[in-house]
Write a structure and sequence with these properties.
Strand order of the largest sheet: 8-9-10-11-22-18-17-14-15
Largest sheet: 9 strands, antiparallel
Shape: globular
Number of helices: 3
Strand content: over 45%
Number of strands: 30
Helix content: under 10%
């Protein structure tokens, strides 16, 4: 070994000092402090670029946190080898039945009210992810656009899987389709009539009754919703929820239909996150407004500014064979504003719809 090389190695050992000893023993470092955040006057969204761009926080201006906090660490065994571990919390896009590499760092930046994030080799595949998170001023609605580029030479067929873990304790509020029959997938919970799932125990594969999932932050008097375009679920989309009654954790997950990303091209989808403060129930999503039903009262909360609207509540009282109707007029509403409507009945109906000339939305009830 030449004398210059010996001097260089000696200098490296002196400069690194006790760090060499720490590497040899396995040094654990928290990497969740590296983050990007886009905010407005009502809400903030935090992303961890070093950990595949996981959405780590949805926090209201009053301090209420809607997501369970990721705990992410990197263990360094030698200067050349390290591995990362986490508790899986937060909100992340993965692929169903594809082994995920959650430790791939990505790149992000903020431009005004938008957060841009890119990631190579997304979810253990060769796909390149681009995610754009948009949070307008004076809004409790977040719009997320996701696209995947395929740089390879063959088409890829994958099912995007969106994993959401709300702040603990939380409860899923999932609209379930009635009389669902499907083949070739894990057994789905079946029901003769549509209903609102909120049972927190075990594994539950559920046929979507609508294009949203609700999450109740149980001790925060706040509900938020994760919404997909109706065409995004199709006939083969699946809702999934896993609950651990011991610690109050319940996941709310969406398994989209198979998506083909052609060689050399892009495919993608979008979703919205809507926050509804002041309620503990969610029975329907009407545009960007959450509808909560309690016997004798209907409550509407707007996630973003809404124009005045009129609807007919068509409902069938329990034990009756014919429908009744009741007119509901919602005034112009600002983000976070609540309107209460007193109903002419005080029991949970067999079924109910909010209808106008352009829309018909079912209200889902727990059974």
């Amino acid at each position: 070994m030449k004398w210059k090389t010996k001097i260089l190695l000696l200098a490296l050992l002196v400069l690194s000092g006790s760090n060499i000893y720490a590497f040899q023993r396995g040094e654990v470092r928290d990497i969740s402090g590296k983050r990007l955040q886009v905010s407005n006057n009502l809400l903030s969204v935090t992303v961890l670029p070093e950990y595949s761009g996981r959405i780590a926080s949805l926090r209201l201006a009053n301090g209420i946190e809607l997501l369970a906090s990721p705990q992410i660490s990197e263990t360094v065994e030698t200067p050349l080898f390290s591995y990362k571990s986490d508790n899986g919390y937060g909100l992340v896009e993965r692929f169903w039945k594809v082994k995920s590499r959650g430790d791939v760092p990505g790149h992000g930046y903020i431009d005004g009210n938008k957060l841009y994030f890119t990631l190579n080799r997304c979810g253990g595949t060769e796909l390149e992810l681009e995610r754009v998170i948009v949070l307008p001023a004076n809004s409790l609605e977040i719009v997320v656009n996701v696209s995947y580029s395929n740089p390879g030479g063959k088409n890829l067929s994958l099912r995007p899987w969106l994993n959401i873990i709300g702040a603990i304790p939380s409860r899923a509020l999932i609209p379930v389709q009635g009389t669902a029959e499907r083949q070739g997938f894990p057994a789905l919970r079946k029901s003769v009539v549509p209903y609102l799932f909120s049972d927190g125990g075990g594994n539950n594969f559920l046929p979507p009754g609508d294009s949203w999932i609700g999450i109740e932050a149980m001790d925060k008097m706040t509900v938020w919703a994760f919404c997909l375009p109706e065409e995004g679920l199709g006939n083969s989309g699946i809702f999934y929820s896993f609950g651990n009654r011991n610690n109050g954790m319940q996941t709310s997950e969406v398994i989209l239909p198979e998506m083909v990303v052609p060689a050399g091209k892009k495919s993608g989808f979008s979703y919205r996150i809507l926050v509804f403060p002041g309620i503990k129930q969610l029975n329907a999503v009407l545009g960007s407004t959450g509808i909560a039903f309690t016997p004798g009262k209907l409550t509407a909360v707007a996630a973003k500014e809404e124009k005045a609207r009129s609807f007919t509540l068509v409902y069938r009282p329990a034990g009756e064979n014919s429908d009744r109707s009741f007119r509901i007029d919602l005034p112009e509403m600002k983000s976070g504003e609540m309107q209460e409507v007193i109903l002419p009945f005080s029991s949970v109906p067999e079924e109910a719809f909010l209808q106008s000339d352009s829309v018909s939305v079912r209200l889902f009830f727990r059974r």
